[in-house]
Amino acid sequence: WTLRAYDALPGSPIWTGAVFAIGLLAAFFIGRAIFGGADNSEPGELRIAITQILITAFCATAYAYILMTARRTTREMSLVIPNLPNQQAVVDRAGKHSKWVLPLVGVASYLIIGIGVTNATTPAPTSPWDWQGWNYDVFWHRATTVAFVYWIGCFIYVIVMESSRLSAISNNIETLDLLNMRPYQPLIRQGLTNALLVLGMVSMLSLLGVESRYWPALIGFWISFAALAWIGLMLPLRGIRRKFKAAKDQELQWCNKRLTASRDALKSGAGDGPSIADTLAYQAMIENQRNWPFDNSILVRFSLYLLIPLGSWLGGAFVERGVDLILS
Question: What angle do CA 292, 69, 240 make, to 5 degrees?
Answer without folding.
Answer: 20
